[in-house]
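Practice problem 4.
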């Protein structure tokens, strides 16, 4: 009897040791993940300071120039004012992404439905980003395969942010003098955007990483592209919120194609209103 009792106690001790070992491994894994997350956040904060400080410094310098050029030629003032606007737009674009990422992180990002002229919105986004594409002499081509008068039920604000980030990303990574191709299609109850560039492309092993928050493939002192590393993560989160899908087709050195498919969301409440931006089956 005593031997059986000792054996049972030994078994219990072994089970407890195994559980303690398992718990220790889980704690160690969690600690590694927390350290990695903290490192990414610290790197992001350091990076975002430069991303914000650079355009802000430019804006201050340019507006100061304009102030001193009160009696200069209208052409000179106009040129400085345009440069100041471009830098202000860049700063606003980055800050909006920071605020969006903060809302997602806090779990407060919500869907507010409305009706939007998608064709008009797309043209507005391209126009807003014209100063970026013109810097690189890029040809931004649009192929619309839908009724241009159609109004689509979705969250206009989220869709606008998604298009701004996807198209802005394509422009950023396209080589000078090249082109970005955007296709807009509509089906029975869905809408499809295809954004194609001829940039450096993304290795298959890295394609999941680009949708992570605080993550950029192009980092450190060798960084050659602007950006906070938040844009694609925001697009992915918003796509999920709207019940859509976001896919990528890319090869290293062969450019990238981003495919955004969204279902139309119907809402018959009084708050479901048509929204304007700028002056049956889902695919």
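Answer key:
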């Amino acid at each position: 009897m005593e031997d059986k009792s000792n054996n049972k106690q030994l078994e219990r001790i072994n089970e407890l040791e195994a559980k303690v070992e398992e718990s220790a491994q889980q704690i160690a894994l969690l600690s590694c993940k927390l350290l990695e997350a903290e490192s990414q956040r610290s790197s992001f904060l350091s990076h975002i300071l430069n991303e914000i400080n650079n355009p802000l410094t430019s804006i201050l310098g340019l507006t100061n120039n304009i102030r001193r050029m009160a009696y200069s030629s209208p052409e000179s003032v106009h040129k400085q004012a345009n440069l100041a606007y471009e830098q202000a737009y860049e700063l606003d674009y980055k800050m909006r992404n920071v605020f969006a990422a903060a809302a997602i992180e806090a779990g407060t990002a919500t869907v507010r439905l409305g009706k939007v002229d998608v064709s008009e919105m797309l043209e507005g986004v391209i126009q807003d980003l014209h100063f970026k594409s013109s810097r690189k002499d890029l040809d931004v081509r649009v192929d619309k395969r839908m009724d241009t008068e159609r109004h689509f039920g979705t969250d206009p604000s989220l869709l606008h942010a998604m298009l701004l980030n996807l198209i802005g990303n394509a422009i950023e990574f396209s080589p000078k003098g090249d082109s970005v191709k955007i296709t807009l299609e509509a089906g029975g109850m869905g809408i499809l955007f295809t954004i194609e560039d001829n940039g450096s492309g993304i290795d298959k092993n890295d394609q999941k990483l680009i949708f992570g928050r605080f993550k950029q493939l192009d980092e450190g002192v060798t960084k050659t592209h602007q950006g906070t590393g938040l844009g694609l993560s925001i697009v992915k989160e918003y796509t999920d919120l709207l019940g859509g899908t976001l896919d990528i087709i890319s090869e290293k050195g062969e450019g990238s194609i981003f495919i955004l498919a969204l279902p139309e969301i119907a809402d018959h409440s009084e708050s479901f209103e048509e929204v304007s931006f700028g002056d049956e089956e889902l695919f």
